[in-house]
Amino acid sequence: MAGGRWFSRWPVLRQLKGEDGRSDAARSARTDALRPRTEEADSVARSVCPYCAVGCGQLVYVKDGRVSQIEGDPDSPISRGRLCPKGSASKQLVTHPGRQTHVLYRRPYGTEWERLDLGAAMEMIAERVLRTRKDTWQQTHEGKVVRRTLGIAGLGGATLDNEENYLMKKLYTALGAIQVENQARI
Predict the structure, then answer these.
(1) pTM recorded for the entire structure
(2) Are strands 114-116 and 66-72 parallel, antiparallel or unpaired?
(3) Where are the beta strands (DSSP E) in the chain?
(4) Hey, where are the domains in the chain?
(5) Rounded Cα distance, 22 and 18, in Å
(6) For domain 36-99, which CATH number applies: 2.30.29.30, 2.20.25.90, 3.30.870.10, 1.10.3720.10?
(7) Which pLDDT tens digit goes with each residue over 46-66?
(8) How many CB atoms lie within 10 A of CB 51?
(9) Which tens digit of pLDDT belongs to each residue from 65-120?
């Protein structure tokens, strides 16, 4: 075909112009009845995605006191309404039915998980951290003052927000740990 006339025959262009006889083939009564989850929200709160240091803006939609949807905030100068796959799935942080809400513990060589009281679990962790620090503390190494422990290390995950990672870094440093890394930074 001469010039750019072949261009107008592309199927996608014909569909967009409404010239394709199949334009309603993908429609159904169910499709037409669907409504956005955001349409019936009682309120909308602006927030920031908790996953990494980028700080993408989010709109959190709430219905009946529960999060009903989370979407990118188009007014955010950082992300302009876009979210990565983790940010898009952040609603699951609070609504997923498989989300653990109790402390579970499996004893050494055990095969079953058991529920623990939060206070008992915190005491157990504190005791183990302090014992490990005491048992592995190095005041000096090769004649130099190092004041460190190699028995404690920290690895933060992508579900931790910047503030949580900051506090974890401060805690590990105060304990003398020098092996501190964070997946969200990578």
Answers:
(1) 0.56
(2) unpaired
(3) 43-48, 57-63, 66-72, 103-105, 114-116, 137-141, 144-156, 177-182
(4) 1-34, 36-99, 119-185
(5) 9
(6) 2.20.25.90
(7) 998 887 778 899 999 999 998
(8) 23
(9) 989 999 999 999 999 999 998 888 888 888 888 888 889 999 999 999 999 999 99
